[in-house]
Amino acid sequence: MFGGGGMNPRKMKQMMKQMGIDVTELEAEEVVIKTADEELVFSDAQVTRMDAQGQETYQIVGEPETRELGAGDDGGDESTEAADAIPADDVAIVAQRAGVPEDEAREALEAEDGDLAAAIARLE
C-alpha cells in the first residue's frame, strides 16, 4: 500500500492509525465495474476500504471476468433487454404504490431509467 518494504504489518497499521487513516477489510461477494464498453466482474475479490480524512478509497485485489456490453444490438430484442434491466420486485413495488397494473409500472420505470420514486410520481 505505502511500500513499507520489510515493515511489520502491525507497525504499519499503527502508523496509519496515527496519521488518521482507517483501513477496513470488506467481506465482498462480488464487485462489478461498468465502463462504456464492458463490465469487469470480480468474484471472491479481496476488498479494502481506506478512510483518510473523510475521503474513502477502495482497493480491489482479484482477477476480473470481462463481459462485453451491448452484445447483439444489431437486430436484437430490445424489449427483452429493457424488461431484464428492470427487476420484477421494482415493478411490483411501483404497481402497488401507484395502484396500477404491472405493465404500466414497467413502462414508467423504463421511462424513468429505473428510478422507483420518479416512476411512482409519474403515475400518480
What is the mean pLDDT?
A: 81
- The topology string of helices and strands comes to HEEEEEEHHHH
In total, how many beta strands? Answer: 6
Quote the distance from N terminus to C terminus.
Answer: 52 Å
Beta-strand fraction estimate: 25-35%
For the record, what is the CATH homologous superfamily label of the largest domain?
Nascent polypeptide-associated complex domain
| Count of domains | 2
Query: Tally the helices: what do you get?
Result: 5
Low-pLDDT sequence parts: 72-83
Overall shape: it is elongated
**What is the CATH first-level class name of the largest domain?**
Mainly Beta
For this structure, the CATH topology of the largest domain is: Ubiquitin Ligase Nedd4, Chain: W
Kindly state the percentage of residues in helix: 25-40%
SS-based class: alpha+beta
**CATH level-two architecture of the largest domain:** Single Sheet
Radius of gyration: 22 Å
How does the major sheet shape up?
A: 3 strands, antiparallel
Across the major sheet, the strand order is 1-4-5
